[in-house]
Amino acid sequence: MTSPGARRPPRIPLPPPLRRRTWTAASLFFLAAGLTVKPMLVTTPAVLLLLDIWPLRRLPLSRPEFARTLPRLVAEKAFFWMLIAVSSALAVFAHAQSTSLAHLSLGVRLLGMPLHYVFYLLKTVLPLRLTILYPGLPVHFVGVLAAVLLLSALTLLAWDSRRRSLAPLVGWLWFLGVMVPTSGIIRFGVQSLADRFTYLPALGLSLMLLPLWPARRTRGRGIRLAAAAALLLAAAALTRQQLPVWRDSNHLFDHLLRYSPDHAFGLTNRARHLQQQGRLPEAEALMRRAAASPTGSDMQKILLADILASMGRPGEAVEYLQSVTLLSPGSSAGKYHFTLAMALNQMNRLPEAARQARRAADAISPHDLIRRDLDLLGMVIAVRMNDPDAAREWARSLPQYRGHPRIGEDDLLP
């Protein structure tokens, strides 16, 4: 929308039908490719509608024209909507199968959405105290109310500016819309908050600044250039300060623990490092803290049992694992049964160890990196049980035995 006295800019012409179909097919292909690595692209059709408002000006905001034009523009993107529907269904099904969807009620997740929006907004505007992972945001009345008031005020400001320029309104709606998949309504475990979720929504915040840079020369241009240069220099300084954090995994997770001392994944990384150094009592203490942390998952409990077994306490490891109720049995069952089989093998409880190894094999993909260790463990257990047929069955999956027409007993565990 423009003021009555302003000259209306010309519409951007559409390409001929054949070229339009070619570009549409190419867009669908690249959207499908993008969805394989960035599921939050599910908001793409809605973003295309925002671009129809501005800069394409195909969707006027006046009520009669908007109601008449919107259905046609929605329908023209039918293939995009269908692709998004299929991708969303597959994503939800995959996470439901692994039961990695968060165990929070819908009401709590809805109340948490404003907090997530404000969290990402502040991290984009003031990129300070950045880290690889964040603890969950506590949901309480005062915080939710403050977040709702802030978001409402910004929305009203963006709407009020539409007569001067549509860029702030479209940019703000871009930010709100693209952020929906990561706004807390769907929780995917430990990664429910992450800096990388801001990459695409931040484009909308950038659009909101476009009116500060009119096409024509205006007064104050030098001041705006100086301010932009200062912002770039500040961003460069913050980037330089952040780069050493990514030197290696130890620096990365030590940085995480600096801001979240009880974060399970930071404690886990430090415990694994101590385990590799042979400092097992210290590793056990840290892993117990990680397993008790609210940011923990099944992985910390399984790794704690692994450390206990490494310390020559397999009985304690078995007892601990058998007391654990898995939060995500779909994704954790394989590693759980594998660790249990290792501890039972140490205790010479071979029939139980063999059963747990079989259950692990049913849950772990043949392409998983841990599968080779599992096949080797299964073969060891079978040899110890004097079951050469079972040992050969496990051995056939190992690289050194593939292609052998016949595996003799002497070939097993040379």
Describe the structure.
The chain is mainly α. Helix content is 62%, strand content 0%. The protein is built from 18 helices and no strands. Helix 2 packs antiparallel against helix 7 (167-178), helix 11 packs antiparallel against helix 12 and helix 12 runs antiparallel to helix 13 (298-310). It starts with 16 loop residues before the first helix and ends in a 19-residue tail after the last helix. Mean pLDDT is 89; it is low at 1-6.
Quick structural gist:
Helix content is 62%, strand content 0%. It is mostly helical.
Q: Please state roughly what percent of the residues sit in beta strands, choosing from under 5%, 5-15%, 15-25%, 25-35%, 35-45% or over 45%.
A: under 5%
Helix percentage range: 55-70%
Distance between the termini: 80 Å
Strands, total number: 0
Mean pLDDT: 89
The profile of the biggest β sheet is:
none
Shape: elongated
| Number of discrete helical segments | 18
What ranges have pLDDT less than 50 throughout 5 or more consecutive residues?
1-6
Quaternary structure of the protein: single chain
Helix-strand makeup class: mainly alpha
What's the helix-strand series?
HHHHHHHHHHHHHHHHHH
What radius of gyration results from the CA coordinates?
Answer: 28 Å
Topology:
Blueprint: H1 17-35, H2 44-53, H3 63-76, H4 78-97, H5 106-125, H6 141-160, H7 167-178, H8 201-207, H9 221-242, H10 249-259, H11 264-276, H12 280-292, H13 298-310, H14 314-322, H15 329-346, H16 350-363, H17 371-384, H18 388-395
Helix pairs in contact: 1-4, 2-7, 5-6, 6-7, 7-8, 10-11, 11-12, 12-13, 13-14, 13-15, 14-15, 15-16, 16-17, 17-18
